[in-house]
Design a protein that fits this description.
single chain, about 450 residues, alpha/beta, Beta-Lactamase, Rossmann fold, 2 domains, 8-stranded mixed sheet, 7-stranded mixed sheet, 16 helices, 17 strands, globular
Length: about 450
């Protein structure tokens, strides 16, 4: 998810004790799932920060102090050894630099210095060396527990998340390339955003008020889908007394129960797979279900079924428009089942928000969104398999809060928020975009 929230503040290092203590750590308030918490701590050697890592037992959230297992402690100690890794590439230093520069991602791989993505552009961190294989392994392993390392070794790639003190969370994909370990760290600030803070249309806030049905938030990787969903769940949590179940891989934003009761389940720790969690979710008495990603026929089918049974379901897809989202859901099914799926989907779909993060004039990024709200015309089009007509229906549905991506981009250009050239790169139909910008 991209960093569309207000800038997080840089963690203030804590003074380390004079003598090296036994490796113990206290879980932070936002460590709610299995994983680790890395605390910024000043290294007594004066060469840089070292890490205190908290391993959290997924079956025991009441623990106040958890002793790090021997093999993880050894890896953490090795990663913190001043002679093993230059202080400029300690994991704590990189995470703090990411937060300080309000970057959305950190990329590390052999043969390159650490790279930040700032406002969509990749920039090397100044005065950091080219990373070696040993450096990468120390950086990644210092954020993993023993079980996570086993999964990474076996599967060659692994999604996980961890807390960096009480400042931020990071979602990580560790993977192998050319026989070497590499990783992408995504910054997830701990402050929960609101729909207004994200700059989303007001109609999106109303998605949280639906009593039932299926709401899709779509877009390519890094378009802020998880952030939008977190804002919607946060709104429900503070306004309604309902039971919310999220199924994520990994957990990104952590929610505390307010008026609602929230259960967050993470694949690999709390369930073996999305499909397995979805099979049992109806027996968990949910009112609202958030599905981190609809990846295949089984998860799409389950999401439709859960919505059909009277629950409100939020889910994401990696698609670029409302029409493409509907087609993607239907096309995963065998041809003989598609008429039935069209009928089911037309009855449960409530809205689709397809979004992008576009570089803003003066720095930062702004969210541009296509909004489709399901009315009788939309449902009829889906049922009859005429999804190519959805764009026209969205264009004529402005009074219901609908808007096309091209019209949204044109409006942002006219307001002086984004440049014409940047808007062209994200336009769906260049001819339509230029027509709207010129007022023809």
């Amino acid at each position: 998810m991209e960093n569309t929230q207000p800038q997080a503040q840089t963690a203030q290092p804590q003074a380390a004790p004079a003598a090296a203590p036994e490796v113990l750590a206290t879980p932070t308030e936002n460590t709610t799932n299995a994983g680790e918490t890395i605390q910024p701590i000043v290294d007594t050697s004066g060469t840089g920060a070292s890490a205190a890592i908290t391993n959290v037992d997924p079956t025991d959230n009441t623990s106040t102090v958890v002793k790090v297992s021997a093999n993880v402690a050894a890896a953490a100690a090795a990663a913190a050894t001043p002679t093993a890794v230059p202080s400029s590439v300690r994991i704590e230093v990189l995470l703090e630099e990411c937060i300080r520069q309000n970057a959305s991602d950190i990329h590390i791989q052999v043969g390159l210095p650490p790279i930040l993505r700032i406002d969509g552009a990749l920039k090397a961190i100044p005065n950091t060396p080219v990373l070696t294989k040993d450096m990468i392994e120390k950086l990644v392993y210092s954020t993993l527990d023993s079980m996570q390392r086993e999964i990474l070794t076996k599967d060659k790639e692994f999604d996980y998340s961890f807390s960096f003190g009480d400042v931020a969370r990071f979602r990580v994909n560790a993977f192998n390339e050319k026989g070497n370990l590499a990783a992408a760290f995504r910054l997830i600030p701990t402050k929960m955003p609101t729909i207004d803070e994200l700059g989303m249309p007001q109609v999106v806030s109303g998605f949280a008020d639906y009593p039932r049905g299926l709401v899709l938030v779509t877009g390519p990787t890094g378009s802020g889908k998880s952030t939008t969903l977190a804002a919607l769940i946060n709104k429900i949590n503070h306004e309604k007394a309902v039971h919310i179940v999220t199924i994520e891989d990994p957990i990104e934003f952590t929610h505390k129960s307010a008026r609602s009761v929230i259960v967050q389940r993470e694949v690999h720790y709390d369930t073996f797979s999305f499909a397995r969690a979805l099979k049992s979710v109806l027996r968990e008495d949910p009112d609202v279900v958030l599905l981190g990603e609809m990846r295949d026929l089984e998860t799409i089918s389950s999401a439709i079924t859960i919505a059909e049974t009277g629950h409100l379901v939020f889910a994401t897809l990696h698609t670029n428009s409302a029409a493409q989202s509907i087609d993607r859901m239907i096309d995963v099914f065998p041809a003989e089942q598609q008429p039935q799926i069209r009928s089911q989907l037309s009855s449960v779909i409530m809205a689709v928000c397809s979004q992008r993060l576009v570089p803003a004039i003066g720095g930062g990024r702004v969210c541009a969104a296509e909004i489709m709200v399901a009315n009788s015309a939309v449902r009829s089009i889906i049922r009859e398999g005429k999804t190519h007509q959805l764009d026209t229906t969205i264009q004529t549905g402005a009074n219901e809060g609908m808007q096309t991506m091209d019209r949204t981009l044109a409006k942002l250009v006219q307001q002086g928020t984004i440049t014409y050239d940047d808007a062209r790169e994200y336009a769906v139909d260049l001819h339509e975009f230029e027509r709207i910008v010129k007022g023809v």
